[in-house]
Amino acid sequence: MKRNMEAVASSSSQDIAAIQDEDILNKMLDKAVDFEERRMLRAALRELLKKKREKREKERGSRQEDLRQLNQRGAVGSSTSQQPSQCPPKPLCSYTSQCVPPKPLCSYESVADSSAKSPTATAPNTKNVKQMLLDWCRAKTEPYEGVNIKNFSSSWSDGIAFCALVHRFFPDSFEYFTLDPTKRRDNFELAFTTAEKMAGCPPLLDVEDLLHMAEPDWKCVYTYIQEFYRCLVEKGLVKIKKRP
To answer: Rounded to 5 degrees, what are φ and ψ at 91?
Structure first.
């Protein structure tokens, strides 16, 4: 890891492209200040995520083909009309059945009151803080395909943006490139459960409420992202002078 970090100091595109460790690229992107170096790092990170996704899709296709052939052999060898049993598909969130149900609320008022005593809650201008937090989310999820954060409402409606933001700080918790934007419930549960498990961020958003809304309430999303950010700061994963 140290050797890779030193190699990138020259800002060589070949050296950056040779790094195949997502965590290293993320850390370097956080520290990089040169525009050209940040551009190369983002390109390398996108390419690495693309390779991982293609590899996963190839492996999944191979497993599906093996399963199909196995079922065909079972059907031919069976003397009854009973349909061959099939293995249930692997759930996107492997710990969904063990997840603690989120609290049925979106209490941004109570969170704001409870965080008023925290230094991170004070800000001279709420509008500026909101924009700063939105810019932070956009910067952290920029390398991820399928994510285009423009606001705190419609940009989060399929759960992919939540997953990308959580995955940026905990890349070993799940495989982002296997996510399906049409499986909104799985995406919400995966993001909120991982954030709670890894960052200690309480599940302030109710999945059932999100599923019944075409676009989530921006106040609820804004408050949840504030809480996630606060938890990251407490764990030392975010270190900047101005905190949203």
So the answer is: -65, 150
CA distances in angstroms from 112 to 31, 123, 224, listed in the order given: 31, 12, 11
C-beta pairs of 124-130 under 8 Å, 24+ apart in sequence: 129/244, 130/222, 130/244
Domain spans of the chain?
2-77, 96-234
Q: How many other C-beta atoms can be found within 10 angstroms of the C-beta atom of residue 83?
A: 10
Contact 122/151 with Cβ under 8 angstroms? no
Residue 227: the pLDDT is 96
Tell me the per-residue pLDDT of 55-98, one tens digit each, with 9 for 90 and over: 766 776 776 676 666 666 655 554 444 444 444 444 433 333 33
Domain 96-234 sits in CATH at 1.10.418.10
For 191-201, the pLDDT digits (tens) are: 999 999 999 99
Name 165's Cβ contacts closer than 8 Å, sequence gap at least 6. Answer: 137, 140, 141, 191, 225, 228
